[in-house]
Amino acid sequence: MSYDVIVIxxxxxxxxxxxxxxxxxxxxAVIEKRATYGGTCLNIGCIPSKALLHASEVYAxxxxxxxxxxxxxxxxxxxxxxxxxxxxxxxxxxxDGVQFLFKKNKIDxxxxxxxxxxxxxxxxxxxxxxxxxxxxxxxxxxxxxxxxGIPGVKVDIDExxxxxxxxxxxxxxxxxxxxxxxxxxxxxxxGSVWSRLGAKVTVVEYLDNILGGMDGEVSKQFQRMLAxxxxxxxLGAKVTxxxxxxxxxxxxxxxxxxxxKTVLDADVVLVATGRKPYTEGLGLAxxxxxxxxxGRVEIDxxxxxxxxxxxxxxxxxKGPMLAHKAEDEGVALAExxxxxxxxxxxxVIPGVVYTQPxxxxxxxxxEELKAAGTAYKAGKFPFTAxxxxxxxLATDGFVKVLADKDTDRVxxxxxxxxxxxxxxHEAAVxxxxxxxxxxxxxxxxxxxxxxxxxxxxxxxxxxxxIHM
Length: 468
Ligand code: FAD
Description:
This protein is an alpha/beta fold. About 30% of the residues lie in helices and about 25% in strands. The protein has 14 helices and 22 strands. The protein has helices at about 10-25, 40-45, 45-65, 80-105, 165-170, 185-195, 215-230, 285, 325-335, 365-370, 385-390, 420-430, 435-440, 450-460, and strands at about 1-10, 30, 110, 115-120, 120-125, 130-140, 145, 160-165, 175-180, 200-205, 230-235, 235-245, 250-255, 260-265, 270, 275, 310, 350-355, 360-365, 375-380, 400-405, 410-415. Strand 5 and strand 6 (about 130-140) form a beta hairpin. Helix 1 (about 10-25) runs parallel beside helix 9 (about 325-335) and helix 3 (about 45-65) runs parallel beside helix 6. It starts with a strand and ends in a 6-residue tail after the last helix. Bound molecules: flavin-adenine dinucleotide.
Protein backbone atom coordinates (compact mmCIF):
# COMPACT_ATOMS: atom_id res chain seq x y z
CA MET A 1 0.00 0.00 0.00
CA SER A 2 1.34 3.39 -0.92
CA TYR A 3 0.41 6.83 0.46
CA ASP A 4 1.28 10.50 0.15
CA VAL A 5 1.33 10.87 3.95
CA ILE A 6 1.48 8.42 6.84
CA VAL A 7 1.02 9.90 10.30
CA ILE A 8 2.28 7.90 13.29
CA UNK A 9 0.18 8.80 16.35
CA UNK A 10 -3.40 10.12 16.43
CA UNK A 11 -3.26 12.74 19.19
CA UNK A 12 -4.32 16.33 18.38
CA UNK A 13 -1.17 16.77 16.28
CA UNK A 14 -1.51 13.55 14.30
CA UNK A 15 -5.26 13.33 13.75
CA UNK A 16 -5.59 16.99 12.76
CA UNK A 17 -2.62 16.70 10.38
CA UNK A 18 -4.17 13.62 8.77
CA UNK A 19 -7.61 15.24 8.33
CA UNK A 20 -6.13 18.42 6.86
CA UNK A 21 -3.86 16.41 4.52
CA UNK A 22 -6.86 14.38 3.30
CA UNK A 23 -8.93 17.55 2.86
CA UNK A 24 -6.13 18.90 0.67
CA UNK A 25 -6.31 15.82 -1.55
CA UNK A 26 -3.37 13.79 -0.20
CA UNK A 27 -3.77 10.02 0.18
CA UNK A 28 -3.38 9.64 3.90
CA ALA A 29 -3.05 6.91 6.53
CA VAL A 30 -2.67 7.00 10.30
CA ILE A 31 -1.14 4.47 12.69
CA GLU A 32 -2.17 4.31 16.35
CA LYS A 33 -1.02 1.85 18.97
CA ARG A 34 -3.67 2.74 21.52
CA ALA A 35 -7.05 0.99 21.16
CA THR A 36 -8.76 4.34 20.55
CA TYR A 37 -7.82 7.47 18.60
CA GLY A 38 -7.22 10.96 19.95
CA GLY A 39 -3.95 10.44 21.83
CA THR A 40 -3.13 11.64 25.32
CA CYS A 41 -5.41 14.66 25.01
CA LEU A 42 -8.69 12.89 24.27
CA ASN A 43 -8.08 9.66 26.20
CA ILE A 44 -6.20 10.60 29.38
CA GLY A 45 -5.47 14.34 29.22
CA CYS A 46 -7.36 17.49 28.25
CA ILE A 47 -10.81 16.00 27.79
CA PRO A 48 -11.21 13.69 30.82
CA SER A 49 -9.54 16.24 33.11
CA LYS A 50 -11.92 18.97 31.95
CA ALA A 51 -14.92 16.68 32.44
CA LEU A 52 -13.82 16.15 36.06
CA LEU A 53 -12.93 19.82 36.56
CA HIS A 54 -16.40 20.85 35.43
CA ALA A 55 -18.23 18.20 37.45
CA SER A 56 -16.23 18.85 40.64
CA GLU A 57 -16.72 22.61 40.18
CA VAL A 58 -20.50 22.15 39.95
CA TYR A 59 -20.32 20.07 43.16
CA ALA A 60 -18.19 22.64 45.04
CA UNK A 61 -20.23 25.56 43.72
CA UNK A 62 -23.49 23.95 44.75
CA UNK A 63 -22.06 23.26 48.20
CA UNK A 64 -20.54 26.69 48.81
CA UNK A 65 -21.35 29.18 46.06
CA UNK A 66 -25.08 29.52 45.50
CA UNK A 67 -26.67 30.27 48.89
CA UNK A 68 -25.49 33.89 48.59
CA UNK A 69 -27.42 34.13 45.33
CA UNK A 70 -30.56 33.17 47.19
CA UNK A 71 -30.63 29.60 45.99
CA UNK A 72 -30.83 27.22 48.92
CA UNK A 73 -30.45 23.49 48.38
CA UNK A 74 -29.65 20.59 50.67
CA UNK A 75 -25.94 19.73 50.85
CA UNK A 76 -25.00 18.01 47.57
CA UNK A 77 -24.11 14.33 47.68
CA UNK A 78 -21.16 13.04 45.71
CA UNK A 79 -21.62 10.03 43.45
CA UNK A 80 -18.02 9.55 42.33
CA UNK A 81 -18.76 6.48 40.22
CA UNK A 82 -21.33 8.50 38.23
CA UNK A 83 -18.90 11.42 37.87
CA UNK A 84 -16.30 9.01 36.48
CA UNK A 85 -18.93 7.49 34.16
CA UNK A 86 -19.69 11.01 32.87
CA UNK A 87 -15.95 11.50 32.22
CA UNK A 88 -15.70 8.14 30.42
CA UNK A 89 -18.74 8.93 28.26
CA UNK A 90 -17.25 12.30 27.26
CA UNK A 91 -13.97 10.58 26.33
CA UNK A 92 -15.84 7.96 24.28
CA UNK A 93 -17.86 10.50 22.33
CA UNK A 94 -14.67 12.43 21.49
CA UNK A 95 -12.57 9.43 20.44
CA ASP A 96 -15.49 8.03 18.42
CA GLY A 97 -15.71 11.45 16.76
CA VAL A 98 -12.12 11.14 15.55
CA GLN A 99 -12.82 7.68 14.14
CA PHE A 100 -15.85 9.10 12.31
CA LEU A 101 -13.73 11.93 10.86
CA PHE A 102 -11.11 9.45 9.62
CA LYS A 103 -13.85 7.56 7.77
CA LYS A 104 -15.47 10.73 6.46
CA ASN A 105 -12.14 11.93 5.05
CA LYS A 106 -11.23 8.49 3.64
CA ILE A 107 -8.17 8.15 5.84
CA ASP A 108 -6.90 4.58 6.28
CA UNK A 109 -6.40 3.88 9.98
CA UNK A 110 -4.06 1.12 11.13
CA UNK A 111 -4.09 -0.14 14.71
CA UNK A 112 -0.62 -1.12 15.96
CA UNK A 113 2.84 0.20 16.69
CA UNK A 114 4.34 2.21 13.86
CA UNK A 115 8.03 2.05 13.14
CA UNK A 116 10.06 4.05 10.65
CA UNK A 117 11.90 1.46 8.57
CA UNK A 118 13.54 4.05 6.33
CA UNK A 119 12.49 7.25 4.57
CA UNK A 120 9.39 6.24 2.60
CA UNK A 121 8.75 3.03 4.51
CA UNK A 122 6.81 2.39 7.72
CA UNK A 123 5.92 -0.88 9.43
CA UNK A 124 2.89 -1.50 11.64
CA UNK A 125 2.96 -4.31 14.20
CA UNK A 126 -0.47 -5.17 15.57
CA UNK A 127 -1.18 -6.77 18.97
CA UNK A 128 -1.04 -10.24 17.40
CA UNK A 129 2.52 -9.51 16.28
CA UNK A 130 1.57 -9.33 12.59
CA UNK A 131 3.63 -6.83 10.60
CA UNK A 132 2.37 -4.78 7.65
CA UNK A 133 4.76 -2.62 5.65
CA UNK A 134 3.46 0.58 4.08
CA UNK A 135 5.07 2.91 1.57
CA UNK A 136 4.66 6.66 1.59
CA UNK A 137 6.13 9.84 0.20
CA UNK A 138 6.05 11.52 3.62
CA UNK A 139 6.17 10.26 7.22
CA UNK A 140 4.85 12.42 10.06
CA UNK A 141 5.97 11.54 13.58
CA UNK A 142 3.27 12.66 16.03
CA UNK A 143 3.92 10.24 18.87
CA UNK A 144 3.45 12.80 21.63
CA UNK A 145 4.73 12.53 25.16
CA UNK A 146 4.68 10.39 28.26
CA UNK A 147 4.77 11.04 32.00
CA UNK A 148 8.18 12.19 33.26
CA GLY A 149 9.35 11.05 36.69
CA ILE A 150 10.94 13.11 39.43
CA PRO A 151 14.56 13.86 38.50
CA GLY A 152 16.94 11.72 40.57
CA VAL A 153 14.15 9.94 42.50
CA LYS A 154 13.02 6.37 41.83
CA VAL A 155 9.22 6.33 42.00
CA ASP A 156 7.09 3.23 41.64
CA ILE A 157 3.91 4.55 39.98
CA ASP A 158 1.18 1.94 40.52
CA GLU A 159 -1.65 4.30 39.39
CA UNK A 160 -3.55 3.52 42.61
CA UNK A 161 -1.59 4.95 45.56
CA UNK A 162 1.26 6.65 43.70
CA UNK A 163 -0.34 7.97 40.54
CA UNK A 164 0.50 9.95 37.43
CA UNK A 165 -2.19 12.10 35.83
CA UNK A 166 -3.53 8.88 34.23
CA UNK A 167 -4.35 7.36 37.64
CA UNK A 168 -5.23 10.81 38.98
CA UNK A 169 -8.28 11.00 36.70
CA UNK A 170 -9.50 7.54 37.64
CA UNK A 171 -9.42 7.22 41.46
CA UNK A 172 -12.22 5.05 42.83
CA UNK A 173 -12.57 7.06 46.03
CA UNK A 174 -11.74 10.52 47.28
CA UNK A 175 -8.47 10.35 49.21
CA UNK A 176 -8.44 11.95 52.65
CA UNK A 177 -4.95 13.32 52.08
CA UNK A 178 -3.36 13.86 48.68
CA UNK A 179 0.16 15.13 48.04
CA UNK A 180 0.78 16.58 44.60
CA UNK A 181 4.41 16.64 43.52
CA UNK A 182 4.69 19.53 41.05
CA UNK A 183 2.82 22.84 41.05
CA UNK A 184 2.37 23.08 37.28
CA UNK A 185 -0.85 23.10 35.29
CA UNK A 186 -1.65 19.38 35.51
CA UNK A 187 -0.86 19.14 39.25
CA UNK A 188 -2.97 22.18 40.10
CA UNK A 189 -5.90 21.16 37.89
CA UNK A 190 -6.11 17.61 39.26
CA GLY A 191 -5.26 18.83 42.78
CA SER A 192 -8.25 21.19 42.46
CA VAL A 193 -10.54 18.36 41.38
CA TRP A 194 -9.76 16.25 44.47
CA SER A 195 -9.64 19.24 46.80
CA ARG A 196 -13.16 20.26 45.69
CA LEU A 197 -14.37 16.72 46.28
CA GLY A 198 -13.05 16.77 49.86
CA ALA A 199 -9.37 15.75 49.85
CA LYS A 200 -6.81 17.72 51.86
CA VAL A 201 -4.38 18.57 49.06
CA THR A 202 -0.77 19.61 49.64
CA VAL A 203 1.38 20.71 46.72
CA VAL A 204 5.17 20.36 46.85
CA GLU A 205 6.94 22.43 44.19
CA TYR A 206 10.65 22.79 43.43
CA LEU A 207 10.41 26.39 42.19
CA ASP A 208 9.62 29.38 44.40
CA ASN A 209 6.30 29.90 42.61
CA ILE A 210 3.53 27.78 41.18
CA LEU A 211 2.86 27.73 37.41
CA GLY A 212 6.52 28.35 36.54
CA GLY A 213 6.74 30.48 33.41
CA MET A 214 3.41 32.24 34.00
CA ASP A 215 3.26 35.96 34.83
CA GLY A 216 4.61 36.37 38.39
CA GLU A 217 1.77 38.58 39.64
CA VAL A 218 -0.84 36.15 38.29
CA SER A 219 0.95 33.20 39.83
CA LYS A 220 1.08 34.84 43.31
CA GLN A 221 -2.60 35.81 43.26
CA PHE A 222 -3.54 32.35 41.96
CA GLN A 223 -1.69 30.67 44.82
CA ARG A 224 -3.51 32.87 47.36
CA MET A 225 -6.85 31.90 45.79
CA LEU A 226 -6.07 28.18 45.81
CA ALA A 227 -4.87 28.46 49.43
CA UNK A 228 -8.20 30.10 50.29
CA UNK A 229 -9.90 27.07 48.70
CA UNK A 230 -7.95 24.84 51.12
CA UNK A 231 -4.86 23.78 49.17
CA UNK A 232 -1.52 23.93 51.00
CA UNK A 233 1.80 24.73 49.35
CA UNK A 234 5.46 23.96 50.01
CA LEU A 235 7.49 25.96 47.51
CA GLY A 236 11.26 25.89 46.91
CA ALA A 237 11.01 22.26 48.05
CA LYS A 238 12.96 19.39 46.53
CA VAL A 239 11.30 15.98 46.75
CA THR A 240 13.89 13.33 47.65
CA UNK A 241 11.63 10.31 48.10
CA UNK A 242 8.15 8.97 47.31
CA UNK A 243 7.50 5.58 48.89
CA UNK A 244 4.58 3.36 49.72
CA UNK A 245 3.91 3.15 53.47
CA UNK A 246 1.13 0.87 54.75
CA UNK A 247 -2.00 1.52 52.70
CA UNK A 248 -0.76 4.95 51.67
CA UNK A 249 2.52 6.61 50.86
CA UNK A 250 4.97 9.16 52.21
CA UNK A 251 6.69 12.00 50.45
CA UNK A 252 10.01 13.32 51.71
CA UNK A 253 11.28 16.74 50.71
CA UNK A 254 13.83 19.34 51.78
CA UNK A 255 14.27 23.04 51.05
CA UNK A 256 16.06 23.56 47.72
CA UNK A 257 18.31 26.04 49.54
CA UNK A 258 19.22 23.35 52.08
CA UNK A 259 17.73 22.51 55.47
CA UNK A 260 15.76 19.89 57.35
CA LYS A 261 13.74 17.17 55.67
CA THR A 262 9.93 17.09 55.95
CA VAL A 263 7.88 13.91 55.57
CA LEU A 264 4.22 14.06 54.54
CA ASP A 265 1.79 11.13 54.75
CA ALA A 266 -0.76 10.72 52.01
CA ASP A 267 -3.44 8.31 50.88
CA VAL A 268 -2.58 9.18 47.30
CA VAL A 269 0.49 10.87 45.83
CA LEU A 270 0.06 12.49 42.41
CA VAL A 271 3.35 12.83 40.55
CA ALA A 272 2.87 15.76 38.17
CA THR A 273 6.40 16.79 37.36
CA GLY A 274 5.95 17.18 33.64
CA ARG A 275 6.04 15.11 30.49
CA LYS A 276 8.78 13.89 28.19
CA PRO A 277 8.76 13.33 24.42
CA TYR A 278 7.82 9.78 23.43
CA THR A 279 9.93 8.10 20.73
CA GLU A 280 10.28 4.56 22.07
CA GLY A 281 10.26 1.76 19.51
CA LEU A 282 9.94 4.15 16.59
CA GLY A 283 13.22 3.13 14.99
CA LEU A 284 14.42 6.71 14.73
CA ALA A 285 18.06 5.96 15.54
CA UNK A 286 18.19 3.25 12.84
CA UNK A 287 16.55 5.62 10.36
CA UNK A 288 19.16 8.26 11.24
CA UNK A 289 16.68 10.81 12.66
CA UNK A 290 18.42 13.16 15.09
CA UNK A 291 17.00 13.98 18.54
CA UNK A 292 17.98 17.08 20.51
CA UNK A 293 19.58 17.03 23.97
CA UNK A 294 16.12 16.76 25.62
CA GLY A 295 15.09 13.71 23.61
CA ARG A 296 12.81 15.68 21.26
CA VAL A 297 12.83 15.05 17.52
CA GLU A 298 14.88 17.87 16.04
CA ILE A 299 13.07 19.83 13.32
CA ASP A 300 13.52 22.99 11.26
CA UNK A 301 10.91 25.72 10.70
CA UNK A 302 9.04 23.46 8.29
CA UNK A 303 8.83 20.48 10.68
CA UNK A 304 11.49 18.64 8.62
CA UNK A 305 13.79 16.29 10.48
CA UNK A 306 17.33 15.80 9.20
CA UNK A 307 16.08 12.88 7.02
CA UNK A 308 14.28 13.91 3.84
CA UNK A 309 10.60 12.90 3.84
CA UNK A 310 10.36 12.53 7.64
CA UNK A 311 8.63 15.27 9.64
CA UNK A 312 7.58 15.70 13.28
CA UNK A 313 5.00 17.78 15.19
CA UNK A 314 3.36 18.14 18.60
CA UNK A 315 4.66 17.17 22.03
CA UNK A 316 7.48 15.13 20.49
CA UNK A 317 9.14 18.34 19.21
CA LYS A 318 10.19 21.60 20.88
CA GLY A 319 7.69 24.17 22.15
CA PRO A 320 4.86 24.16 24.68
CA MET A 321 3.27 20.75 25.26
CA LEU A 322 -0.25 21.88 24.40
CA ALA A 323 -2.94 20.25 22.30
CA HIS A 324 -3.73 23.37 20.26
CA LYS A 325 -0.04 23.93 19.48
CA ALA A 326 0.10 20.33 18.21
CA GLU A 327 -3.10 20.84 16.17
CA ASP A 328 -1.87 24.04 14.55
CA GLU A 329 1.43 22.35 13.67
CA GLY A 330 -0.59 19.50 12.15
CA VAL A 331 -2.49 21.92 9.92
CA ALA A 332 0.64 23.87 8.93
CA LEU A 333 2.54 20.69 8.06
CA ALA A 334 -0.32 19.28 5.98
CA GLU A 335 -0.42 22.56 4.06
CA UNK A 336 3.33 22.42 3.48
CA UNK A 337 3.07 18.81 2.25
CA UNK A 338 0.29 19.90 -0.13
CA UNK A 339 2.56 22.59 -1.54
CA UNK A 340 0.99 25.47 0.37
CA UNK A 341 2.56 27.88 2.88
CA UNK A 342 1.81 26.47 6.34
CA UNK A 343 2.74 28.60 9.33
CA UNK A 344 2.28 28.74 13.12
CA UNK A 345 2.73 32.00 15.03
CA UNK A 346 4.52 30.80 18.16
CA UNK A 347 4.25 34.27 19.74
CA VAL A 348 0.48 33.88 20.00
CA ILE A 349 -0.23 30.51 21.60
CA PRO A 350 -2.66 30.88 24.50
CA GLY A 351 -2.19 28.88 27.69
CA VAL A 352 -5.08 28.14 30.05
CA VAL A 353 -5.33 26.61 33.51
CA TYR A 354 -8.87 25.29 33.88
CA THR A 355 -9.24 25.78 37.63
CA GLN A 356 -11.71 28.10 39.32
CA PRO A 357 -10.92 30.89 38.75
CA UNK A 358 -9.26 30.14 35.44
CA UNK A 359 -5.87 31.49 34.53
CA UNK A 360 -5.09 32.36 30.92
CA UNK A 361 -2.28 34.06 29.13
CA UNK A 362 -1.02 34.80 25.66
CA UNK A 363 2.27 36.36 24.59
CA UNK A 364 5.04 37.65 26.80
CA UNK A 365 5.03 37.95 30.59
CA UNK A 366 6.39 41.02 32.37
CA GLU A 367 9.35 38.90 33.51
CA GLU A 368 10.15 37.96 29.88
CA LEU A 369 9.87 41.56 28.69
CA LYS A 370 12.15 42.76 31.50
CA ALA A 371 14.71 40.03 30.76
CA ALA A 372 14.68 40.98 27.05
CA GLY A 373 15.11 44.68 27.91
CA THR A 374 11.87 45.57 26.05
CA ALA A 375 10.38 48.94 27.01
CA TYR A 376 6.74 48.20 27.84
CA LYS A 377 3.71 49.63 29.61
CA ALA A 378 1.19 47.66 31.66
CA GLY A 379 -2.51 48.27 32.28
CA LYS A 380 -4.55 46.34 34.83
CA PHE A 381 -8.23 46.08 35.63
CA PRO A 382 -9.74 44.08 38.51
CA PHE A 383 -12.96 42.09 38.16
CA THR A 384 -14.16 43.72 41.42
CA ALA A 385 -14.88 46.81 39.28
CA UNK A 386 -16.79 44.87 36.59
CA UNK A 387 -20.60 44.91 36.82
CA UNK A 388 -21.17 41.45 35.35
CA UNK A 389 -18.56 39.93 37.66
CA UNK A 390 -20.34 41.49 40.65
CA UNK A 391 -23.70 40.17 39.42
CA UNK A 392 -22.25 36.68 39.23
CA LEU A 393 -20.23 36.90 42.48
CA ALA A 394 -17.15 36.25 40.34
CA THR A 395 -15.02 39.25 41.31
CA ASP A 396 -11.78 37.38 42.00
CA GLY A 397 -8.91 38.26 39.69
CA PHE A 398 -7.83 40.81 37.11
CA VAL A 399 -6.80 41.40 33.51
CA LYS A 400 -3.33 42.69 32.67
CA VAL A 401 -2.38 44.03 29.24
CA LEU A 402 1.28 44.56 28.31
CA ALA A 403 2.10 46.71 25.30
CA ASP A 404 5.22 48.07 23.64
CA LYS A 405 5.99 51.48 25.18
CA ASP A 406 6.67 53.14 21.83
CA THR A 407 4.38 51.43 19.34
CA ASP A 408 1.54 50.42 21.74
CA ARG A 409 1.46 46.99 20.06
CA VAL A 410 0.10 44.41 22.51
CA UNK A 411 2.83 41.96 23.53
CA UNK A 412 1.06 39.94 26.22
CA UNK A 413 -2.26 39.59 28.04
CA UNK A 414 -2.71 37.76 31.34
CA UNK A 415 -6.04 37.04 32.96
CA UNK A 416 -7.02 35.41 36.21
CA UNK A 417 -10.75 35.20 36.74
CA UNK A 418 -14.00 33.47 35.85
CA UNK A 419 -14.01 32.47 32.18
CA UNK A 420 -10.41 33.61 31.58
CA UNK A 421 -9.91 30.68 29.20
CA UNK A 422 -12.56 32.11 26.87
CA UNK A 423 -11.73 35.81 27.40
CA UNK A 424 -8.11 35.32 26.35
CA HIS A 425 -9.05 34.72 22.74
CA GLU A 426 -9.99 38.30 21.97
CA ALA A 427 -6.42 39.16 22.97
CA ALA A 428 -5.08 36.31 20.81
CA VAL A 429 -6.98 37.54 17.74
CA UNK A 430 -5.87 41.12 18.38
CA UNK A 431 -2.23 40.03 18.70
CA UNK A 432 -2.43 37.85 15.59
CA UNK A 433 -3.32 41.00 13.66
CA UNK A 434 -0.58 43.05 15.40
CA UNK A 435 -3.16 45.21 17.22
CA UNK A 436 -2.45 47.89 19.82
CA UNK A 437 -3.88 48.42 23.29
CA UNK A 438 -5.71 51.43 21.83
CA UNK A 439 -7.32 49.16 19.18
CA UNK A 440 -8.53 46.90 21.97
CA UNK A 441 -9.65 49.73 24.24
CA UNK A 442 -11.60 51.44 21.43
CA UNK A 443 -13.40 48.25 20.35
CA UNK A 444 -17.01 48.34 21.49
CA UNK A 445 -17.65 45.58 24.05
CA UNK A 446 -21.14 44.46 25.01
CA UNK A 447 -22.34 45.49 28.46
CA UNK A 448 -22.45 43.91 30.95
CA UNK A 449 -19.79 41.30 30.16
CA UNK A 450 -16.62 40.01 31.77
CA UNK A 451 -14.93 41.01 28.48
CA UNK A 452 -15.33 44.65 29.43
CA UNK A 453 -12.52 44.06 31.95
CA UNK A 454 -10.24 43.24 29.00
CA UNK A 455 -11.25 46.48 27.29
CA UNK A 456 -10.72 48.45 30.52
CA UNK A 457 -7.25 46.92 31.06
CA UNK A 458 -6.41 48.00 27.49
CA UNK A 459 -7.73 51.51 28.23
CA UNK A 460 -5.52 51.52 31.33
CA UNK A 461 -2.54 50.62 29.15
CA UNK A 462 -2.77 53.49 26.64
CA UNK A 463 -4.54 56.09 28.82
CA UNK A 464 -6.97 55.54 31.73
CA UNK A 465 -9.77 53.07 32.47
CA ILE A 466 -13.27 54.53 32.89
CA HIS A 467 -14.59 52.45 35.78
CA MET A 468 -11.71 52.85 38.21
P1 FAD B 1 -0.41 12.75 21.99
O1 FAD B 1 -1.73 13.32 22.28
O2 FAD B 1 0.43 12.31 23.14
O3 FAD B 1 -0.67 11.52 21.00
C1 FAD B 1 0.35 10.69 20.57
C2 FAD B 1 -0.24 9.39 20.14
O4 FAD B 1 0.77 8.64 19.48
C3 FAD B 1 -0.72 8.51 21.28
O5 FAD B 1 -2.06 8.13 21.05
C4 FAD B 1 0.20 7.30 21.27
O6 FAD B 1 -0.46 6.10 21.62
C5 FAD B 1 0.61 7.27 19.80
N1 FAD B 1 1.87 6.59 19.56
C6 FAD B 1 3.07 6.78 20.18
N2 FAD B 1 4.01 5.99 19.63
C7 FAD B 1 3.42 5.30 18.64
C8 FAD B 1 3.86 4.35 17.69
N3 FAD B 1 5.14 3.97 17.63
N4 FAD B 1 2.96 3.84 16.83
C9 FAD B 1 1.65 4.22 16.85
N5 FAD B 1 1.18 5.13 17.72
C10 FAD B 1 2.05 5.67 18.59
N6 FAD B 1 -3.15 20.38 26.59
C11 FAD B 1 -3.96 21.43 26.33
O7 FAD B 1 -3.71 22.16 25.36
N7 FAD B 1 -5.04 21.70 27.12
C12 FAD B 1 -5.33 20.95 28.21
O8 FAD B 1 -6.32 21.23 28.90
C13 FAD B 1 -4.49 19.86 28.52
N8 FAD B 1 -4.76 19.08 29.59
C14 FAD B 1 -3.96 18.01 29.83
C15 FAD B 1 -4.25 17.24 30.95
C16 FAD B 1 -3.49 16.13 31.24
C17 FAD B 1 -3.83 15.29 32.44
C18 FAD B 1 -2.41 15.78 30.37
C19 FAD B 1 -1.58 14.56 30.64
C20 FAD B 1 -2.11 16.55 29.27
C21 FAD B 1 -2.88 17.69 29.00
N9 FAD B 1 -2.60 18.51 27.91
C22 FAD B 1 -3.40 19.59 27.66
C23 FAD B 1 -1.48 18.26 26.98
C24 FAD B 1 -1.97 17.58 25.71
O9 FAD B 1 -2.60 16.37 26.04
C25 FAD B 1 -0.80 17.33 24.76
O10 FAD B 1 -0.12 18.54 24.51
C26 FAD B 1 -1.31 16.77 23.44
O11 FAD B 1 -2.00 15.56 23.63
C27 FAD B 1 -0.14 16.53 22.47
O12 FAD B 1 -0.62 16.01 21.28
P2 FAD B 1 0.27 15.09 20.34
O13 FAD B 1 -0.57 14.83 19.15
O14 FAD B 1 1.60 15.68 20.15
O15 FAD B 1 0.51 13.73 21.15
